[in-house]
Amino acid sequence: MDSIDLRLIDLLRENARSSYAELARKVGLSAPAVHERVGKLEAAGTIRGYRADVDHEALGLGVTALIGIIEDSGADTDDVLAAVRAMPEVESCYFMAGVESYQLIVRVGTIAELEQLIVRINRTPGVASTRTAIALSTKWENRPQPGLG
Amino acid sequence: MDSIDLRLIDLLRENARSSYAELARKVGLSAPAVHERVGKLEAAGTIRGYRADVDHEALGLGVTALIGIIEDSGADTDDVLAAVRAMPEVESCYFMAGVESYQLIVRVGTIAELEQLIVRINRTPGVASTRTAIALSTKWENRPQPGLG
DNA sequence: CTGACTCATGGACTCCATCGACCTCCGGCT
DNA sequence: AGCCGGAGGTCGATGGAGTCCATGAGTCAG
């Protein structure tokens, strides 16, 4: 993991569809060398995958919200987690320090759907209560933090 | 925007480095047809870009936290936003309904760095106070929600 | 029926991905 | 010192992919 690897990671976070040839030109190596380095980064799990970044509004998922979950005192955390995992609207899920065990980032089409989702979460066994905050607008998301390569 | 477009988007959210030929096989079109469709989705802004999904821990950014910002009553929201935008640690930024005007997702290497970041945010003009919650673990992040294509 | 439009196909040409062969540097061993 | 072996690079070849373009099928309005 040297500075060339870091630059490759930065370049792929900027544009994951760059060709190996293009990456090679930018870092000053040959295409096969870049190919091998990227392959090793993938194998090591440093690069987990490549995702298209979409406009959720255009896909009918214009409502973003943060939902904090407070569990019952005797709740089985894994059961709550599994229930939440089964809900496709939950885009991200963090296990938190603090009263709210989980923090979810959810994406739905309408406020009505958000309401239904909240009801469903509140109904799942182990969940004592939830706290929801709605995002009025997304200033930016998943902005890559440049490495020092 | 038909069901084939939705499937292409799903496929690219799964693996943004799929070749056009592979996408073509999966959706049952020719490669040039897929090329044109994807190009149109990009031009329309439905696909905003392609990002490598990295293991932040491996890059020395193992600490994730959510920070809510409460603004001064007379604060200029744009100034606060610009100040936050200039901090590379802030990966995502949402403008929220509720007392906390902004919700940030930040990524740093150590708790000490998080402390410094919080201090810096609290010092910026227009910020009255902040509330920070630390993620102990990330269950999942940016999970693509499948379209109905 | 006809013309215009949309959208997919197939061919052609260029460029890329990827494999194998070889080269170079470096650390450890005889 | 000289040799060996591995890591990691370049180069060249080739099969396949990307992409441009001309063409053809299907659809709707007039």
TrEMBL record, chains A, B:
Protein name, UniProt field: Lrp/AsnC family transcriptional regulator
Taxonomy of the source species: Bacteria, Bacillati, Actinomycetota, Actinomycetes, Micromonosporales
Gene3D superfamilies with a match to the protein in the record: 3.30.70.920, Winged helix-like DNA-binding domain superfamily/Winged helix DNA-binding domain
Entry keywords, A to Z: DNA-binding, Transcription, Transcription regulation
Chain ranges of the HTH asnC-type domain: 1-62
Pfam family, one: AsnC_trans_reg
InterPro entries for the chain: ArsR-like_HTH (IPR011991), AsnC-type_HTH_dom (IPR000485), Dimeric_a/b-barrel (IPR011008), Tscrpt_reg_AsnC-like (IPR019888), Tscrpt_reg_AsnC/Lrp_C (IPR019887), Tscrpt_reg_HTH_AsnC-type_CS (IPR019885), WH-like_DNA-bd_sf (IPR036388), WH_DNA-bd_sf (IPR036390)
